[in-house]
Structure formats: structure tokens, C-alpha cells
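Sample entry (144 residues):
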Amino acid sequence: MISLQQFVENGLFQLIEAFHANPWSLLDPNTPDARNAIHHPATHHHAAARNLNLHARAVHDERVRDLQVTEAQLDEKWAFVGKKQKNCDPDDPEDQDKGDQWDHTAVDVDSRMVVSLVVGKRDRQALEEVVGDFAERTGGSPPP
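Predicted structure, serialized as C-alpha cells:
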């Protein structure tokens, strides 16, 4: 398994290249995901993608700090998870994280870097979270 330290030292692109070359490298061989990958390859790819996501988030959280942003763009993109919202049962606990989901982003206009990303429902809480995260990464200032 590639450690977080190796990921931080080698950078995101090297990790992605390693993933494409050998997705097994992102799985700890002692985990059920790795043991099941032999019999269920699709499970392995999902687990490796989850690990890649966790590593990418950790690097982003560590490195994307104290930014000088002169102009930001807030945006949102719709998708659905599992099934469309109209097919979700509000009384079914399994449907709580399914249905409409939105990628809420705050992007530095000059560099086009995604400074903040929040995935969730299209509500005030998600908006406050993406604006708050942006402010933390830019020294406390909200998006200009």
C-alpha cells in the first residue's frame, strides 16, 4: 500500500499513474477489500478508488492553504446517486444519501484551481460549508 507520506512526497500525478499501472498498489493486502479483490475485481477497483480519493483529499487539505485569491467563482453541478430523487423514499433510511447530490465548488478564477469542494444536497448547509472552507483556505476571507 502506498503510504500517505509517499503520496505527499511524490505528488498526486505520480499516485494516479501508479493507480493506472497497478490499482492493487492502493490496497492494503491485509484488508478484506484486498482479499476479496481476487474473487471480485469490481470491488477491488471501488476500494482502490476510495483510497485514491482519501489520499487526494488529505493532500488537498494539507497543501491548499493560505491562498491569495483575487476573484473566485462559486458553482454547482447536479448528479444523482443510486437513483433519481423522485424515486427515493424519504422514510427509508437507506435512501438518505441517495437521489439528488450537488458538487458545490469555489474556484480561483485566475488559476482555475478548485479551492473548495462540498458534495451534498442543494441547501443552505452545503453553501455555508463551501464558503466556510474557502474562507479557511484563503486566510479567513470569503469569496470576493
